[in-house]
Design goal:
The structure holds 2 protein chains of 2 kinds.
Chain A lengths: L2 H27 L8 H8 L5 H14 L5 H27 L4 H8 L4 H34 L16 H18 L9 H29 L3 H10 L1 H4 L8 H19 L1 H9 L6 H17 L2 H11 L10 H8 L3 H41 L1 H5 L4 H28 L4 H13 L1 H10 L5 H20 L2 H4 L7 H4 L20 H23 L4 H11 L1 H9 L6 E4 H9 L4 H15 L8 E2 L1 H15 L1 H11 L1 E2 L4 H76 L4 H33 L7 E3 L1 H11 L1 H6 L2 E7 L6 E3 L1 H18 L5 E10 L2 E8 L6 H6 L21 H11 L3 E6 L5 E8 L8
Helix pairs in contact in A: 1-8, 1-16, 2-8, 2-13, 3-14, 3-16, 4-11, 4-13, 5-6, 6-7, 6-16, 6-18, 6-19, 6-21, 7-16, 7-18, 8-14, 8-16, 9-14, 11-12, 11-19, 11-24, 12-16, 14-15, 15-16, 16-18, 19-24, 21-24, 25-26, 29-30, 31-32, 32-37, 33-35, 35-37
Chain B lengths: L5 E5 L3 H13 L3 E5 L2 H8 L6 E5 L7 H10 L7 E6 L4 H9 L4 E4 L4 H15 L4
Parallel strand pairs in B: 1-2, 1-3, 3-4, 4-5
The chains are: A mainly alpha, B alpha/beta.
Chain lengths: 908, 129
């Protein structure tokens, strides 16, 4: 066929594609529902089927039989899982306004721009070989179609004689036009999706046409092909899975294709970014596998047919699709095959380069440009700069693909190169799955995993390819680095006997997972990353939370809103209400066609009166297409709830503190009340005790005034008045003393005290009084007692009190008071013993109470205040000691107190 | 003034007893003294005084008990009981009067006032406080 004709067909095809995109956009704008149907979505997913499928599968089947099926089984198995996996990513992407796979990982791992750069570079690295095989397919098919002379003619000569180069340029231009019509916005690219779906239809129809041609024109139907093939032992083998190597290889192919289907940039673009309604995933779960079955239906017949028709093996299986019709002299069928292949290639190139170009410009080119001051300052030019950056990026991706094809890929089969790309894309699986299901997964782990995985990928799958492409790297490819066999790229760590792809996939993914998990466990997450991990893993909670709360942003046509209202209100009422609304917000209905949040809220209000709040919301939701929560919204809500939680926690803490404080206050209050009562009683008792001497003083003074008295009587009365006055004074002193001790205001003046001296001095002081009453005082002291830390005056006060009491209560006629002292277990014990009447058991505690007076103090010249023992007890306890009494009625009383040699923990 | 009148003075404060002893003797009473409730009860077994001056807070047998005894004995029905106490609160006075006392004198008191009140009490004007 002549070159010009073929090129013209290709250009026409591209124009048709352009038209399909334009038409799709128009249809979407006019609200045609078919552009958003699940069929379009499922067909667009078939961008998975590239030239690899169209040409490569036949080649693979011609060499290895059923092996070609593995990479279709993977996606068929995994697409039901997309409902779990993709839906989650879709929610996340909508919520976080993510428009590329690189942004997804960058966002998850701490919104880190370097992460975006890394992922973009790795994506480009991984996918470029894949793009390159599309160039290869276009170039080869073009060559074959135009220069068929019974044998293929490989692409050769310089770049400028290379038709593939011109196709690459053409495709670049086309894709640039194609993509930048809509690329400005992050909104859905309906036209693109429609075009891709159309391409899927084209390549499927083309394949079916070629298949039917081969089966029923070149042969006598499918059974004829299989019968003939079965006759050849060589070909019969192709009906089965390759024994031995086969199952491991299958396993890895299935695994790799699963990952590729989910995470290849083009799949991500159409499957996640462009999805209209996540329910489409459910329909795609059977429609997409159905498509795969249809497009693979004739693979084996064509492969076997080719093998039968070209038994010499000089025609590669990859070109059977073209060679069979050409050989049968059916150039039109060959042209259909060419267009099918072209559709498969271009769909892949267009979507991949748009996805990668977007990632490249968003993550690398634009940040670089913005960092240049001149660019940054011309803010008015930024939109244009961004557009150019995107266009350039798209072009760069396509041309890089071409370069790889020229320099590296040309000699290899489509499937080999494609699988290398699959392995690369699968390196993103750990970080992505971890990102959306494992909160602990973190950026450093992800980076470590990606670098390790890609490192091994490059070492095992790319390096060995390079020498064969004419770039001599060295003999160590064959023998391992430095001759160490375990570092041989194709048999790492001595893993021999595996096929090339399985070997590379195994080691790269293993290292990737190990480094990712290990790194995530080893390093800690930052705050942003933790928040993002939270949002990503629990996206359903967050999006539901959003939906049930504030600030929904809906979109609806004003006409829809009006129709909705008309179902519940008469037309006159609706129009009046809308007029009121329009006047309020100065709205011109001719220009205001898309209802915003104000109108939606207004509508809800109008409906709420009739059907209630919940139903009104539901009704409005039926016409208002809800926009999903944005990243900022989620954050705002999170922040808000965080603040509320924090405030709540603080409030709880505060109220807890308050409660504790209240309890403390209450108990203090109770204590105070008790003390208050005690104080009252004390005061009452004190005043009572004061009234007694006062009564005597008052009475005697009046008697002295009212009666003339003899000298003796008069003197007695006056003396009594004096004594009673002194008694009052003493009482007052002691009350104040006791108050000081009890309130803790009284402090001890501790010094080194020799208690022997103190006791002797005190005993000496009362000897007069004792002699007056004919009482014997016996002092029996252990001389060797240690010195103590004590307040000597206070100890003297205690001793004096005890001795006075003893004198008071000792027997009248042969009274005896014994003072003894000795050292015992760190304490000095002092006893004061009398031989008086003693104390009843019930009195023994009471005597230490304030104002307790023991019975009749017969003939006592100085009635006690009842405070002496109470004060003594306080003094001894302040020293860290103890005061008590042992007594029996009729056998005297023995008062004892202990003073510690070393003060411990006493307040003074 | 009534020469034949007998008064029993009971208080554990010797100096108060001493003062009242002097006061009532000067006014021509026949005075009996008790230093506590026990002594008072003992005395009351033989004597029937016209007036009993009774301190409340005394060891062993207190003033209330003495009063209750007096009021419970028909023999002592003619005895007027006067409490003298440092317990001067309203409640204390009310309690004293409920015990059947004819007069309640809070300490400290004026001997002049006491004498007037006692005279009025014994003149048959009935209880007054």
């Amino acid at each position: 066929m002549n070159e010009f004709g073929v090129i013209s067909v290709a250009v026409l095809y591209l124009l048709g594609l352009f038209g399909a995109a334009y038409w799709g956009d128009r249809a979407a704008a006019r609200g045609k529902s078919w552009v958003k149907s699940p069929w379009v979505y499922s067909l667009s997913l078939a961008v998975y089927c590239t030239a690899w499928t169209f040409f490569g599968s036949v080649g693979e089947a011609s060499r290895n039989g059923m092996d070609f099926l593995a990479i279709y089984i993977g996606p068929s198995l995994v697409i039901p899982l997309a409902w779990i996996l993709w839906r989650k990513i879709i929610r996340i992407s909508k919520a976080q306004r993510i428009s590329s796979f690189a942004e997804l990982l960058a966002s998850r791992y701490g919104r880190n721009s370097r992460m975006g750069v890394l992922v973009t570079i790795l994506l480009v690295l991984g996918v470029i070989p894949y793009i390159s095989i599309q160039h290869k397919a276009i170039a080869d098919s073009f060559e074959i179609l135009t220069h068929w002379d019974g044998a293929p003619r490989g692409a050769s000569g310089g770049i400028f004689q290379d038709s593939a180069f011109y196709f690459a340029l053409l495709l670049s231009l086309f894709t640039i036009f194609f993509s930048t019509r809509k690329l400005e916005s992050t909104e859905r690219n309906t036209g693109l999706v429609v075009a891709i779906a159309a391409e899927s239809v084209v390549k499927l129809l083309a394949f079916l046409i070629v298949g039917i041609f081969v089966a029923w024109f070149s042969f006598d139907g499918l059974d004829d092909i299989f019968r003939q093939a079965a006759a050849h032992p060589e070909l019969e083998k192709l009906f089965h899975v390759n024994q031995g190597q086969g199952y491991r290889s299958w396993f890895f192919m299935v695994l790799l294709s699963m990952g590729a289907f989910l995470f290849l940039p083009r799949q991500f673009q159409v499957g996640v970014i462009e999805i209209v309604d996540e329910k489409h995933l459910k329909q795609a779960a059977w429609r997409f596998p159905l498509y795969l079955i249809l497009i693979n239906f004739f693979v084996l017949p064509v492969a076997l047919g080719g093998n039968l028709l070209f038994p010499e093996g000089d025609v590669a299986g990859d070109i059977y699709m073209l060679a069979i019709p050409l050989e049968a002299d059916a150039p039109w069928v060959a042209l259909v095959a060419f267009i099918g292949g072209f559709a498969a290639s271009t769909s892949m190139i267009i979507v991949s380069s748009i996805a990668l170009g977007l990632a490249l410009s968003n993550n690398i080119v634009m940040p670089l440009l913005v960092s240049i001051r001149n660019v940054r300052q011309r803010t008015d030019r930024l939109p244009r700069t961004a557009r150019y950056a995107r266009r350039a990026s798209v072009g760069i991706v396509i041309l890089l693909g071409y370069l790889f094809f020229r320099l590296v890929a040309a000699p290899y089969s489509l499937v080999q190169i494609g699988l290398v790309s699959f392995v690369a894309v699968c390196q993103f699986i750990p970080a992505t799955l971890g990102g959306i299901f494992w909160k602990t997964g973190n950026r450093r782990g992800a980076v470590a995993g990606l670098l390790a995985g890609f490192g091994v990928w490059f070492f095992t799958l790319i390096l060995p390819k390079l020498p064969g492409s004419g770039l001599e790297v060295g003999t160590w490819i064959e023998q391992g680095i430095g001759g160490m066999a375990f570092l041989k790229p194709t048999a790492l760590f001595g893993l021999e006997g595996w096929d090339f792809i399985s070997h590379g996939a195994f080691w790269s993914i293993l290292f990737n997972v190990l480094f990712y998990v290990g790194g995530s466990l080893f390093w800690k997450q930052g705050t942003v990353e933790r928040n993002q991990a939270e949002v990503f893993v629990d996206i359903y909670e967050y999006s539901e939370y959003y939906e049930s709360s504030i600030a929904r942003r809906g979109k609806a046509e004003v006409a829809d809103i009006r129709n909705l209202l008309l179902q519940f209100h008469p037309p006159g009422y609706v129009d009046r209400a809308l007029d009121v609304f329009a006047r309020k917000y100065h709205i011109d209905w001719t220009r205001y066609q898309e209802a915003d949040a104000r109108l939606i809220t207004f509508t809800e209000k109008l409906l709420t009166g009739i059907v209630g709040v919940v139903s009104a919301r539901l009704l409005v939701a039926t016409v208002a297409q809800e926009e999903k929560v944005s990243l900022e919204d989620v954050y705002a809500i999170l922040r808000e709830s965080q603040e509320i939680r924090t405030t709540n926690r603080e409030l709880r803490l505060k109220s807890e503190e308050l409660r504790e404080a209240t309890e403390a206050l209450q108990s203090v209050n109770v204590q105070l009340k008790q003390q208050d009562t005690l104080k009252d009683e004390f005061l009452y008792t004190v005043t009572h005790e004061l009234r007694t001497p006062l009564t005597t003083i008052l009475a005697l003074s009046e008697l002295l005034l009212d009666h003339d008295m003899e000298g003796e009587e008069r003197e007695k009365f006056l003396t009594t008045i004096m004594e009673e006055s002194e008694r009052m004074g003493r009482l007052i002193t002691q009350v104040l003393d006791l108050e000081k001790f009890e309130s803790g205001k009284q402090r001890l003046r501790r010094t080194e005290v020799n208690l022997v001296e103190v006791v002797e001095e005190t005993a000496f002081g009362i000897r007069e009084a004792a002699r007056d009453r004919n009482i014997e005082i016996v002092v029996d002291l252990q001389r060797s007692v240690p010195q103590v830390q004590a307040d000597a005056d206070r100890i003297k006060q205690v001793l004096l009190n005890l001795l006075s009491n003893a004198l008071k209560f000792a027997r009248k006629d042969d009274g005896k008071v014994i003072v003894s002292m000795y050292f015992l277990d760190g304490f000095i014990k002092i006893n004061v013993e009398d031989n008086g009447e003693g104390l009843a058991l019930e009195e023994q505690d009471a005597i230490f109470d304030k104002f307790y007076q023991v019975g009749n103090q017969k003939g006592s010249p100085r009635p006690g205040s009842g405070l002496g023992l109470a004060i003594s007890k306080q003094i001894v306890e302040l020293h860290g000691g103890r005061l008590w009494v042992e007594s029996e009625l009729g056998k005297g009383a023995k008062f004892s107190f202990l003073i510690p040699v070393r003060p411990f923990n006493s307040p003074e | 003034m009534n020469d034949s009148l007998k008064v029993l003075i009971v208080d554990d404060e010797p100096n108060i007893v001493m003062s009242l002893d002097y006061l009532f003797r000067k006014h021509g009473y026949q005075v009996f003294l008790g230093r506590n409730g026990e002594e008072a009860l003992h005395l009351l077994e033989e004597e029937v005084p016209d007036l009993i001056l009774l301190d409340i807070m005394m060891p062993k047998v207190n003033g209330y008990e003495v009063c209750r005894h007096v009021k419970s004995q028909a023999r002592l029905a003619s005895c007027k009981v006067v409490f003298m106490s440092a317990k001067g609160k309203e409640a204390d006075i009310e309690k004293g009067m409920e015990m059947g006392a004819d007069l309640y004198v809070p300490k400290p008191f004026s001997t002049r006032t006491l004498m007037k009140q006692v005279t009025a009490l014994l003149d048959g004007a009935g209880p007054s406080s």
